[in-house]
Design a protein that fits this description.
- This protein is an alpha/beta fold.
- It has one domain: Rossmann fold (3-Layer(aba) Sandwich).
- Helices cover about 30% and strands about 25% of the residues.
- It is built from eleven helices and 13 strands.
- It has helices at about 50-60, 80-85, 110-115, 130-135, 170-180, 200-205, 220-230, 245-255, 275-280, 285-295, 295-305, and strands at about 15-20, 30-35, 40-45, 100-105, 120-125, 140-145, 155-160, 180-195, 215-220, 235-240, 270, 270-275, 310-320.
- A hairpin with an 8-residue loop joins β1 (about 15-20) and β2.
- The longest helix has 12 residues, at about 285-295.
- The two termini are about 35 Å apart.
Length: about 325
């Protein structure tokens, strides 16, 4: 267990606070440290690949996913796509008919999306439950952590990571490996939580993007750019885009909050919500569905993005 910043290697780090899993019931608590020099926040702990596999396979709720309800992402354009924040998703920035690797592909919705657009698509997912979806629909999926040794060097046109880099054991090593499998001129696109967002300052320790212990790293804009450049990429810029539904999820966590070691009643991953018929009838979920329908939250999220304080940033980098 080291208190050295994993991005800038500074020893000027300080204790931020101690936190635990308020969503899925992982029993341990963890300390968050912040680097005084680059602003990077990271969890202290002896994390291993086996522990991460256990986290995502046994605590994330994908094991309850009904494969028959699988739907790939579809093309979205126009006003409603903008209002819902669809441009926050990395795959929206990938053109047709390219070779793409999506690391952390979750329910494989992105794999179906790219395949339907003529792309040669590969996926990586730590959660073993995703294999059931890949087998059913014939996707090229590697179950486990990303390993560049599984692919040819200079092979991909695009590599994408939707809210994945913050989950990685070693972000620097991950980006170096991605660099090796991208073609010269190939594009890396990744999205991460935005530490300077309104939600963090409003909700404090209840900000849902702390997501302990799944988020091992939380990047400042300085630490994200430093990581991109020290791994050989050319930084092309970043944009503030946020999925609108995240604000509803944040409000939900204020009312339905799991105690340490206990699973919250609120279970939502990606685009899938898990509520039974009894839960759907309680006042809170009826209110949630009403807000979901009128999209009041979406306007607030678009305002947050417009002033540069939305919940997520999407980064663009090119292999030199």
């Amino acid at each position: 267990m080291t208190k050295t910043c994993p991005i800038c290697q500074s020893n000027h780090t300080k204790f931020l606070f101690e936190n635990y899993d308020i969503m899925f019931g992982y029993p341990e608590s963890f300390v968050l440290n912040r680097c005084r020099d680059c602003g990077h926040i990271f969890l202290l702990g002896n994390f291993t690949e086996e522990m991460l596999s256990d986290l995502y396979t046994n605590y994330y709720p994908r094991k309850h996913f009904d494969i028959d309800k699988y739907k790939p992402y579809m093309e979205t354009t126009g006003f409603w796509a903008w209002l819902d924040g669809d441009r926050a998703l990395c795959h929206r920035w990938v053109p047709k008919n390219v070779r793409v690797l999506d690391i952390g592909c979750g329910y494989c919705e992105t794999l179906g999306y790219h395949k339907n657009r003529g792309c040669e698509v590969y996926g990586v997912e730590a959660d073993e439950n995703a294999a059931k979806i890949a087998e059913r629909y014939g996707f090229n999926l590697h179950v486990g952590l990303f390993d560049a040794g599984n692919y040819e060097k200079n092979y991909f046109d695009y590599v994408t990571m939707n809210w994945v880099l913050e989950h990685c054991l070693n972000p620097e090593e991950t980006l170096r490996q991605i660099y090796s499998v991208l073609k010269p001129g190939g594009k890396l696109i990744f999205s991460i939580p935005h530490l300077s967002c309104i939600s963090r300052y409003t909700f404090g320790r209840l900000w849902h993007q702390w997501h302990t212990p799944y988020h091992l790293h939380l990047f400042s804009q300085q630490s994200a750019r430093l990581l991109i450049e020290k791994t050989g990429f050319q930084w092309e810029g970043s944009k503030n885009f946020t999925i609108s539904s995240l604000l509803l999820d944040q409000w939900a966590m204020l009312f339905i909050n799991g105690k340490q070691g206990q699973k919250s009643q609120w279970v939502r991953i990606g685009t899938t919500k898990y509520f039974d018929e009894k839960q759907e009838k309680i006042w809170f979920l009826r209110l949630y569905r009403f807000f979901e329908k009128i999209r009041i939250h979406a306007w607030l999220m678009r305002l947050g993005d417009a002033i540069g304080m939305g919940d997520h940033l999407i980064y663009f980098a090119t292999k030199k």
